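User:
I study polymers; will you set down one protein's sequence and backbone structure tokens?

Assistant:
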Amino acid sequence: CVINDSFSTAITEKMTVGQAMKQGYLNPNGIFGFISADGLEPRYNEGYPYRSMLILRKFRIIPVGWEVAAELVKDSGQTGVNLEYMVNCFDPNDNNYKGPSDGPIGNWCRGLVDPSWVLKAPQNFCAKEGYGPEKISEIIIGKEKDSILIISRDNKYCADEQSCIKEDSNGACQLFGYCTAERRKWDFSSASCEPKYNTCQTFQAPEGGSVSYL
């Protein structure tokens, strides 16, 4: 198993990390990545193991920042680092997520576990499917020099995994491809337009203030 039912519900409901924590779907006290520097990981139903992060990141449910943060936890030899600690550390200027009362938070974990990240599973598509490296069975027919090794392989191997990289205003996928970097996007739950039609402008007032229009 990779995640528990509560985590799965947060993904289905497309909650942010912060919302899921506040509503009890993510455990703020769950150990993050590793329990100790020797690579021991928490159980999936007690914390957030590194192995689970690798799988969730592959399917773009969480960003690579979680994976990087877990590696830093392990390499630094820290113990007992939990999800709440990592979320509080993301932005020191975010008043909604302050550091714990047991001491200051260092700079090493800033910008890695975003409380505003939306937990969702983008639609996936297999462009090429066929026989892969996984062996189902091996049978030797014949004896000695006349023997033949027959190998059966899984014919459902996906050699070209793609995910949805463009959605319309209704959430339907418009384009599949390969995501190399995630980026923030404002969603006003209204009709959207192509980037070439963007009309966002920022004006600087003589008094020094600025105002933006969309």
Remarks:
- The chain has a mean pLDDT of 87.
- Residues 5-89 form one domain.
- The longest strand covers residues 135-141.
